[in-house]
């Protein structure tokens, strides 16, 4: 019997794109895999929930798509946990869940490709798709876990240093071949529901960013593989819902929740000393990048107001804050709103 797949799309302020994402799933036959879609609206401003409800009726989605109109913005991980908890509680839960960003669309039978790959690899907990921009240009969708050295090298943004630390840098090449990696993009990733249930799903301490990295860190730590499967293809308009883009040419100030997630990730995976080392490495690298960028007539690598924001939101909490964030609201236990 073909493995069963539940697709989860968490929307916030991108109703039109979310509708297109749902249609991209429903337009495929998935090579016989039973597929259901769950579209959760994270209390979007502007009446997105009503727009999605009208689309559900007008497009005759029927019981193929379930809407989840939430009354508060849970963020990405906690929003997914709302649906994951309900799926895990079923007498016969689906085998896999596929997380698809609302600003992404399937470009081929990606769900079948990923499910078949996981069927053949029982030791793997997750499999990520290859991702391209709307122009068709592939982008990095497979990564190494961050470290103090990678944070320093990426902050300096100096060719000889980047080449010296090329085996430590977080992004893997856009043409990375299929196989095991540290983690894959949460914009288009399939996961075993049984593993998610055992690990407690996404850590609710994260509002947005790094939640999938931390989850896959726990998957790897528990002995599972993470696979990158570029044959499964997805198109992604990066940052449409959050306006935070990894390759943005214009320096912008990053939101406070981004820094909070960065701090939480390093604290939870490396402890206080490791998180401080990574933070100080990034500060040092950004400090070196400033004169280098001036000499090379380039934009600085760091976001606007980086030094004050990073010190206030990362360094001081690491030095003087609590040792560990809360760890409640797991998939198997239930989660507060």
Automatic annotation (TrEMBL):
Highest taxon above the source species: Bacteria
Alphabetized Pfam families for the sequence: Glyco_tranf_2_3
Glycosyltransferase listed as a keyword: yes
Keywords assigned by UniProt, alphabetized: Glycosyltransferase, Membrane, Transferase, Transmembrane, Transmembrane helix
Transmembrane segments: 273-295
Gene Ontology molecular functions: glycosyltransferase activity
Enzyme Commission number(s) from the entry: 2.4.-.-
Keyword Glycoprotein: no
Stored InterPro entries: Nucleotide-diphossugar_trans (IPR029044)
Enzyme class: transferase
Family statement: Belongs to the glycosyltransferase 2 family.
Protein name: Glycosyltransferase family 2 protein
Organism of origin: Paracoccus angustae
Phylogenetic lineage: Bacteria, Pseudomonadati, Pseudomonadota, Alphaproteobacteria, Rhodobacterales
